[in-house]
Design goal:
- The protein has 4 helices and 4 strands.
- The chain is of the alpha+beta class.
Length: about 140
């Protein structure tokens, strides 16, 4: 089975307020409408992870699937910015920062995201005009 996905797919923690706000931020800036979205907890999210041999239980990060490539943690954020185009793509220069430093900063925020931004009991639901962008 071909595991390529024909559009950039952003998998996010659907109960995390920071993650949900980040998805809304992307939706407002994705002028081309290229990105699709799924919560890690959803059937579509779990299926996408399984296609690439990843377990939903071990995913505590944002995941960007683009074609046959999977990006996680800071790499996912940088690839997302690159694909959004200017001015966000200018931040792609941060790829020059060593991955252990980038991921360390990412993990530091990720470990505190529920404490700082809160958590929902159920996954966030998109506005009606965005529904077709969600799997």
């Amino acid at each position: 089975m071909d595991s390529a996905i024909n559009f950039p797919l952003l998998l996010f923690d659907g109960v995390c307020n920071l993650c949900s706000a980040s998805v809304q931020w992307v939706l407002r800036r994705d002028r081309a409408g290229q990105f699709r979205f799924a919560a890690l907890q959803s059937a579509a999210g779990r299926e996408a992870l399984a296609r690439f041999g990843l377990s939903a239980e071990s995913m505590d990060t944002v995941v960007l699937v683009a074609g046959n490539r999977v990006f996680t943690r800071s790499d996912a954020v940088l690839e997302l910015w690159r694909r959004l185009g200017r001015p966000w793509s200018w931040l792609y220069w941060l790829r020059g920062v060593p991955r252990p430093l980038r991921n360390g900063a990412y993990d530091w925020v990720a470990r505190r995201r529920y404490r700082w931004f809160g958590r929902r009991r159920e996954c966030w639901l998109p506005r009606p005009e965005w529904k077709e962008r969600f799997l």
